[in-house]
Amino acid sequence: MTHKGRPDTARPQRSFSPRQMDRFNESVLPYLDAAYNLARYLLRDPHEAEDAVQGAFLRAIQHFDGFRGVDGRAWLLSIVRNTCFTLLRRRRSGGAAVEFEEEMHSLGDEASGPEADLARTIAMETVQEGLARLPVEFREVLVLRELEGLSYKEIAQIAGVPIGTVMSRLARGRRQLSIALAVGPEGSV
Questions:
Q1: 3-class secondary structure for 21-39?
Q2: What is the pLDDT of residue 94?
Q3: Are 156 and 165 in contact (CB under 8 A)?
Q4: pLDDT of amino acid 104
Q5: Which domains does the chain have, with CATH numbers?
Q6: Nearest-CA neighbor of 100 among 126, 67, 68, 64?
Q7: Pair 75, 69: CB distance under 8 Å
Q8: Listed residue (175, 154, 179) closest to 166, CA to CA
Q9: pTM exceeds 0.85, yes or no
Q10: Range name among 52-61, 71-80, 168-177, 180-189 with the lowest pLDDT average
């Protein structure tokens, strides 16, 4: 209970047996990074993405007894996707995107030095700006396919659309991203 007599909804209302916790840790927990990556690109705000992933994991824990599959990644990413789209519907009024901090999330690269670092930073910012200009349905499939490496079938399952729709959105998203990258930042050539 909270201090005002209301139930504490931030905690799951179930307890796991050690066996269930092991199964959850093996089936779902390895995909925490993929869940955050998807949420970050859909919501365009690292703090909202963290909140969305936390909420999605709480839902996953609460509904884990309904998980019958072997692919925890697709199951978890479906929950993350639904959580993000719920948040996007709530904030339809707009809002500014928070800048993505590349240094905090990047992997090391063999090429180093100031020029290589600057080139990587510019390239990442350009791609991120291009992705940010895309409608969310195109951004979603591009992130799942190109960044997370999911198959068309997995993306279709997560997004709840036919495989043909995934293929179409990927093609259209890639085309729009290519155009956005050719145009440059803020519409300049």
A1: HHHHHHHCHHHHHHHHHHH
A2: 52
A3: yes
A4: 38
A5: 18-90 (1.10.1740.10), 112-184 (1.10.10.10)
A6: 126
A7: yes
A8: 154
A9: no
A10: 180-189
Rg of the chain in Å (alpha carbons): 19
Q: Are 53 and 43 in contact (CB under 8 A)?
A: no
Task: Please state, in angstroms and as integers, the Cα–Cα distance from residue 48 to each residue in 37, 89, 188, following that order.
Answer: 12, 13, 30
CA count, 13 A, side-chain hemisphere, 158: 31
Question: Do residues 49 and 43 make contact, with C-beta atoms less than 8 angstroms apart?
Answer: yes
Q: What are the distances in angstroms from CA 167 to CA 6, 93, 142, 145, 174?
A: 46, 30, 10, 10, 11
pLDDT at 2 over 90: no
